[in-house]
Amino acid sequence: MRKGNTAGDRMELHAKTVDKFSHNHDLGSVSSGAEKRTLFVVLLTAATMIVEIVFGTITGSMALLADGWHMGTHALALSISFVAYFLARRLSGSDRFSFGTGKFGVLGGYTSALFLAVAALWMMYESVTRIISPIAIAFDEAILVTTIGLIVNLISVAILHSGGHSHEHEDHEHEDHEHEGHEHEDRQDHNYRAAYLHVIADALTSVLALGALLTGRYLGWTFMDPVMGIVGGLLILRWSYGLIKVTSRILLDENAGAELRQKIRDAIELGDESKIADLHVWRVSSRDFAVIVSVVSSKDVAPEEFKKRICLIPHLSHVSVEVNVCEDALCECTSDVV
């Protein structure tokens, strides 16, 4: 009996064929470095919180206690980013998620951005209250506490900046500047970006507060403290709004930008023999796209041929192509579809 005619041989050949055409659904890789750096910043913030609360209790300093609890909320918000990394890594490869765990990071970024927005609104509310009803400020103690907080925040910024931004800049250089207003900034690790924005926002708040306290202490400009609170709140609110807008688009499976869709269309419609009848391109993680395309062709062209045409477009991680052969002799449908 010749090789390949047995039932076992046919099953083995069938299995190899299935493997050849199967897709990788585990999209959106988890950066272990980003996860570790985020955890370190969480632990640093939590340690600072404990120290300030303990010493605030011992000394009876309300300023230290207040900043300690503020650090606690900051640590909680940063923990969201770490948990997103942890879950994405822990559940990587699970068949529970159609396109992997890439959107865990996007969801983490979205949730953290909401925390930022709430913090900014609360800061502005408190600042307006202080303008309406001024209170006495213990400048020396407040300046000391703000300086400690600023040092911790700057260390946190340095830790996150050392890993995240160099990687993001490298990514942008290899993306052919594919953007339509927002595409360029979208291809970041939104979870990491949220953590970075948290420490940047806190550092900015500390800088503005320190400047306001120093002018109040030495120039008598006590009004600067609430004014700087409003300015800082507006800046943080703007950052959080940008992040909410970007991540919500991804979570809602918004279509990719027109420029990317046009690149796919141009590549597939390279000759006169085929036209795209239906095209869906959406993000399945911060960086990865899924593509489903239906092609009408006057020739019997294999789907793999169309996949080869778009394989050089970056970040198309899951591509499905359906080919419909036009049986009309004049193939009028190829000029009518859009």
Quick description:
The protein is 66% helix and 9% strand. With 338 residues, the protein is mostly helical.
CATH architecture of the largest domain: Up-down Bundle
Classify the beta-strand content into a percent band.
5-15%
**Helix proportion:** 55-70%
What coarse outline follows from CA principal-axis ratios? elongated
As a whole number of angstroms, the C-alpha radius of gyration is 27 Å
Distance between the termini: 53 Å
Verbal overview:
The chain has eleven helices and three strands. The chain is mainly α and 338 residues long. Strands 1-2-3 form a three-stranded mixed β-sheet. Helix 3 (62-90) runs antiparallel to helix 7. It starts with 6 loop residues before the first helix and ends with a helix.
Describe how the helices and strands are arranged:
Blueprint: H1 7-21, H2 32-59, H3 62-90, H4 102-132, H5 139-173, H6 183-186, H7 190-219, H8 224-251, H9 258-268, E1 274-283, E2 289-297, H10 303-310, E3 316-325, H11 333-336
Parallel strand pairs: 2-3
Antiparallel strand pairs: 1-2
Q: Features of this protein?
A:
three-stranded mixed sheet; 2 domains; 11 helices; Alpha-lytic protease prodomain-like; 3 strands; 338 residues; Alpha-Beta Plaits; mainly alpha
